[in-house]
Each structure stands twice: as C-alpha cells, then as structure tokens.
Amino acid sequence: MKKQLQYTVNRIDLRGVTCPVNAVRVKQAVVALGDDELVEVILDAGESLIQAVRSINDAGFRIISSEQLDNAVAIIVGKARKIEGVG
Amino acid sequence: MSLSELDQAALGRVGMMRQVQPEYYVMRLKAVAGDLNVRQLACIAEVAELYGQGSVHLSTRQGVEIHYVHRDHLEKAKETLAAAGVEMGACGPRVRSIIACPGAETCRWGVIETKSLARELDARYFKQEMPSKFKLSVTGCSSNCTKANENDIGIRGAIEPFWEEANCTDCGLCVSFCPLGAISRRHSGEAENHGATYLIDEEQCVNCTVCTSLCPSNAWVAGRKGYTVFIGGTMGRNPRFGSVLKKIVESEEEVYALVDASIGYFREHGLKKERFGHMIDRIGLEKIREEIVEKAAAIHGEPD
Ligand code: SF4
Ligand code: SF4
Ligand code: SF4
User: Fold this and answer.
1) In this complex, is the C-beta atom of B195 within 8 Å of any C-beta atom belonging to chain A?
2) How wide is the angle at C-alpha B242 spanned by C-alphas B237 and B243, nearest 5°?
3) Between B173, B194, B210, which is nearest A66 by CB?
C-alpha cells in the first residue's frame, strides 16, 4: 500500500526546455527543496525525459512517481534517494 | 587489364587512389575504430605537409586521407607513415577498415567493448579479398552510433532486460522513457509491488540499455547481454538495411564464428561486384541465415 504523501509539492513545467537546461533547472529546484518538500517536474517525452532522468539519477535524487501526459511526463522528485514513508 | 589498370589495382590494394588530377593520389590511412595516437597524428601531419597540400580529409569511415600526393612520393610517404605505425587503408573488393564507436570503455550506454573487438576483427579480416567491397562495424548499443545495419556485417551490443520485481517501486517511469514504448504496466492485484507488474513486448524491444540505465531503483537489470549480428547492410547506390543474423550472441568466439561463416558464404556465392546484401536478396535471407548459423555452430563447436 502506498502511504499518504506528507509533503508539499512544488511544480515546474519544463515543456519546451531542452537538454541540458532542463536538467539544470531540475537540479536547482531539487537542491532548493526543504526536507518535507517534493517537486513535480513536467518534461517533454522522448530524449528530453531520458537526459533529465539520467541527470536526476546521477545527482542522487529520488524519483517517487510519474504520470504520463500528452507528449510529456510529470515526475515527482525528492531530494535524497531514500525518503521514509514515501514511494 | 592494361598495364596502367594493373598498376591502379595494385595501388588500390594498399589504399592509394588516383585523383582527378593526373599523377596525384589519395593516400587512405587505416585507423581501426577511429583511433590514432598523437605520435601517429604528428607523423600524418608531417607527411601531409611534406608530400600533400598541408591538410587531411576525414572520411565517413573514421579514416584519414592525405590528398594530392604525387606518385613519385607515394613510396617515401608510405615508409614515413609506417615508421610511426600508421598503416595504409584499403580500397577495392576487400575488407575495409573496421569502424567502431567508443563502446563500454567510455560510453555510459555501452554494452560491449567495441574497440578490442574491432582490433580483433581487423587482425582477422582486414584486406581479405572479397567479391566486392566489404565493411564491418562495431557499435556499443542500440543507439547504433556506428550504424551496424548499414554495414556488410554489423555487430551491436545488446541486452535483454529483466524485471527485478523486489526492487520496483512502481514509479511508472519506465513506461514513459522506453524509446520504443515496449514496456507496459499490468495491474496484478498483489500488495508487495503496489499491485503492478511490468512487462516487455519482445517484438518491440530493441535491446537497448535505456531501461537498465534509467530505472531509479535498479529494477530493470540486464538478464542477458551480448552481441547482435547484422548482415547485408549497405548504403551507396542501392541501399539496403542489414538483417539480423543472430540476436544477443553471448560469446565473442561465437561472433567470430558467425563472421567467418558469413564471409565464407559470400566468397562462395557472391557474384563479382555484388554486395553481400544484394546476394542475400538474390538467394533468400531465410536460407542464408540458416546455413550461416549452422556453419558457425560447426566452427564454434556447439550444436545450435
Ligand atoms: S552506440 Fe551506444 S555505446 Fe556506442 S557511442 Fe553510441 S551510445 Fe555509446
Ligand atoms: S522505472 Fe523501475 S522502479 Fe519505476 S516502475 Fe519501472 S521498473 Fe519499477
Ligand atoms: S531495452 Fe530499450 S527498448 Fe527494450 S524495454 Fe528496455 S528501454 Fe525499451
């Protein structure tokens, strides 16, 4: 069973923003998060998503969930790889 | 053949091609997998300066060419290059320089060690006589940077992803990032995995490393990995994409057996100036694939 998210979720829309700028923006957003915050990032599907996910993993951030949109994907990212009670 | 044609053929064998300009030649140099060290580069620069026009041309097959070398200087230029370990390339109906991408040594998507494989293929097959030109390429993964399926024989690193259920957090991301849309989520109703099972459509999967590299929880792992061998690719006047000879071959020795068997088959059945792929279309892919795989199994000493 998924536990309820106890986190504030911010949102950045990076549709139309290409690599590497999208990855930089994600990193900035995640680094700025407080411990009880998550960020929802919307990325174009395809190569943009692949590159951004790669940078997110490399940075050691945690991807908690994702949702497919029209030609885009919304992902919820947290600061540390492990956040208790989430995911 | 006239005397001058014979002369041309002999020069072609050692990688020298006559230019439009009478008396001038192109020296085609070999750079297996596109690699040259600085000493070789310095020597090439020196030769281009001394005997050419002070510049080089980079070919589409990772080679370096020195243009505008007068025929009287060819021998001297060749000796100078050889002293630095720069060998001549190949022209005409024979196995050409082997190309390769950087592969697993430095590229994070790489599945196989492309360079060592290219060097071994070079040692085994370079310049061998064939019914027509014959190109080999090695590429580290399905991104296909060195275009395995545009070569007479192409070898491409491949993995077969396997889903480690216990690691999966059901984030759903793989369904979105698989470039082929080959992954789907099925609701299984079991609690341990949030009720989800992730499945791959094998028909659609191109055995790349995107899912195994990007899953944030290491739930996609390489179940098997190896070399997918393509035969019969060619660009040029009558292009044809390579056909899969065998998917995810797990041993390097078996790759060589498949290459041996393919080359042997082409030598036996190929018409003069006919490309390997066009021979395949003339005789039939299924028949050829079966015979080559069988022959390779005999060479490799394994029942297939
Ligand atoms: S084919 Fe794959 S391993 Fe080779 S350079 Fe391209 S991405 Fe890297
Ligand atoms: S990306 Fe990995 S963790 Fe996420 S759903 Fe797919 S297999 Fe599971
Ligand atoms: S190997 Fe590539 S094509 Fe196959 S399922 Fe994984 S990401 Fe998709």
Assistant:
1) no
2) 140
3) B173
Residue A25 resides in a domain: yes
Contact across the interface for A68 and B210, Cβ inside 8 Å: no
Q: Dump pLDDT digits (tens) for B54-110.
A: 999 999 999 999 999 999 999 999 999 999 999 999 999 999 999 999 999 999 899
Contact B271, B131 (CB under 8 A): yes
Task: Look up the CATH architecture of domain B11-83.
Answer: 2-Layer Sandwich (3.30)
Contact call for residues B212 and B198 (beta carbons, < 8 A): no
Residue owning the nearest CA to atom 8 of ligand 2: B168
Determine the residue type at B103. G
Residue A2 located in a structural domain: no
Domain boundaries, chain B: 11-83, 92-304
Pocket test for ligand 3, best of B206, B209, B218 (most atoms within 8 A of CB): B206
ipTM: 0.81
Whether B176 and A49 lie within 8 Å, measured CB to CB:
yes
Q: Which of A73-87, B115-129, B139-153 has the lowest average pLDDT?
A: A73-87
Tokens at B132, concatenated:
């027509």
Query: Which CATH number belongs to the domain containing residue A34 in this structure?
Result: 3.30.110.40
What is the per-residue pLDDT for B2? 59
